User: What shape does this take?
Amino acid sequence: MKTLRLKGLILGVALLMFSCQTAEEDNLDTQKESSIVNVTNHNGQPFSTGQSTSISKAFTPGPGGGVMMQAFYWDVPSGGTWWNTVKSKVTAWSNAGIDAVWLPPVSKAQNGPFSMGYDPTDYFDFGNFNQNGTIETRFGSKTELQSLISTAHSQNVKVFADIVLNHNSGAQLESNQYTGTNTWTDFSGVASGKFLRSQHDFHPNNIHNNDSGFFGGFPDMCHEVPNVQDWLWNRSDGVGKYYKNVMGFDGWRFDYVKGFAPWVVNTWNTKVGGFSVGEYWDSNVNTLEWWANNANSTVFDFACYYKMNDAFDGNNLNILNDDMMWKRNPYKAVTFVANHDTDIIWKKMLAYAYILTHEGYPTIFYRDYEEWLNKERMNNLIWIHNNKATGNTSILFTDTDEYIARRNGYNGNPGLIVYLNNSSSWKERWVPTNWYGTPIKDFTGHSGWYPTTQSGGWVKIQCPPNSYSVWSVN
Assistant: This one.
């Protein structure tokens, strides 16, 4: 009898402990469930850059959409070799899941063989006229540029041109009736003989004294002038349509769009077409959304960029709950971790894990991919983005060191759960999934766990220190 009573007592204690543990887990799960934030609400379609105008088949990397490569950095090697350098890499980029490359400004600029192109003189000199001290641009010849574009298209990769519409440079002096001084606004002698400009095409003129902003003291183009409009987007042989229909560009990155009203890009997009993204350098998400809506364009998500810096380098992942352009409208947000102008984020792999698992159109910076970071890990994240990062987004958990979010899947694709760990130790969490009684795994390979979700969808996942894991159906 004593043995039976002892067994009964042990069984009772065990049941009580199990009951308490279950109740504790249920209570914790209830608390977590109530903290889930649905960040975006839409039908889950992937980001699209549209169909290419130059190839019959657009790049199709997977159900999550594609990834853009910024195919340059500030002061790439001079000497006319850059177009061939990029051309040599396009096939490998395509195989990795890159669906588009963004090139620097391709036309002849004032600083000739040394210019990065942001001081444009002749929009139709692609390295084929002897002008500003050189025939080739810093990046190469027109023939080499055309060969690069053709190679990219053969790999089903789109090519985006960097377009500088705000300012020009490299003109001759002329007597300016609007300023009463001599100004560098005489572009009547450009070697191509196309898009001739004078004092009447810049501010101040007989239309108005200025628009939204000057840059660097360069002549500031006035987009209200009929001659400017004709040569930028109206004429079949003008800048936009020539770049698209003759050179074969599939889209545009518009430089310094703070310098002119958003109707300029809107009109270009209406008249010319192609993918469009604007550089509106501002962390205010209201301003970014205003510009994107009025320009009928995507915009670089500077709000996300600065929030990532504050979160990862500032050691507070709660900041990732803050507002960003991709949360306002993921179809008008182009996300990035670094570019040729700004590179402030130190914990870059966490930042890339963030943008490549979240919504918007992620951009890879050339030097991060080719020189500074682990290319194998980058390729793994690109694959995860293209194949698993589907559907709208729910944030499951955040604190100073941890961030967990869920992509809810789309069109039969299961989506994913991303776990970011900014601490120096392994972390584990119970999280709610959309998968029930289903084996899952970490597609980064950072965790060796192969858990099966419970009947209610809950599962425990883990993440290594100062790293990330990405879970989906195995």
